[in-house]
Amino acid sequence: MEIKKESFLKSGLINLFQEKTGEVDFKFGTVTIPPGERIPKEGFSIHEENEYAVIIEGEVEGESGGKAFCTPENDATFIPAGEAHWVENTGNKSCKVVWVLIKS
Hints:
Blueprint: E1 13-21, E2 24-33, E3 38-39, E4 50-57, E5 60-64, E6 67-71, E7 76-79, E8 85-88, E9 95-103
Antiparallel strand pairs: 1-2, 2-9, 3-8, 4-7, 4-9, 5-6, 5-8
């Protein structure tokens, strides 16, 4: 078993684990998005991994693949590799998200 201490990245993301096993590369972490905060601050995020996320607390609105979405607490999202996206916490409390990036 491995226990990781929180390791904050400049973007506010916490990367808890990163592992490459055979042909699969994955990253697992959390992020807390304060009310009114947008990720990224401008433009879109695009990465080569599939992104899976679960909204633990709060909600986010955003755009992925040119389509607007709203994801409330306890719902999950999937964003395919290479799809441009962004999120914003439009609520009045912090939004807590658990995320996994998987590249195979």
